Amino acid sequence: MVVTHRGAQAVGRCLEFGCGTGHLTRALVDRLSIADLALNDLVGDCEPHVMARLPAGQRARFHAGPVERLDPEGTFDLIASASVVQWIPDHRCLLRDLSNRLEPGGWIALSGFGQDQFGELQALGSSASAPGYRNAGDWAAMVPQGMALMATRQIQTRMYFPTVRAVLRHLRETGVNGNAQGGWSRARLQKFEQDYDAQFGTAQGLPLTYDAVWMLARKI
Ligand SMILES: C[S@@+](CC[C@H](N)C(=O)[O-])C[C@H]1O[C@@H](n2cnc3c(N)ncnc32)[C@H](O)[C@@H]1O
Question: Which UniProt keywords are listed (predicted)?
Fold first, then answer.
């Protein structure tokens, strides 16, 4: 989306927050020439993993800590993030803050998840959830004055699993929600398994819905 709407011209300074082990980082450096890359994640241990994904000669620095309290020097031409904003409850405040760190004409590119994320778990009353699920159509109201929403996208996909335990293992292993099974008694887990099967079981297996959302905004 960044390349489609912004174009593939070189980027001066780019900030990626919540870079994790660098899936989006790699996609960015593969598609764009970035003179100076500031990388951030809450978890400092991500640094060696993300740095290992960079091509030789890529200028980059890593800053550990929550993006809400990050204070990298200067302003950016592109601020990007994948699968992080669902953990940040106040998107209006986040975008205002990010906008202040953008050069005029600079871009913000974010992905997160919509209201139907893990719809099956929500319907079963599971606490496996994040505070910031937001549909594509709701991002316009989050964009501060001085920025224009350029594009959004929302795509639901379903994964299928043979058992409820496999669903829970998937959640734990992806780190999407480490609490999904936390502290459950045997009886509670059994009831959850029965309800999941009864309400959502299909010939393909048990579905788990991912509701991915992307947004792209530009500072005027
Ligand atoms: C689902 S992972 C996504 C990682 C990477 N962006 C990717 O697409 O592979 C979410 C990442 O966001 C980080 N994170 C969560 N809250 C954050 C915050 N407030 N500030 C910075 N990073 C945060 C987590 O540590 C984790 O690495």
Answer: Methyltransferase, Transferase
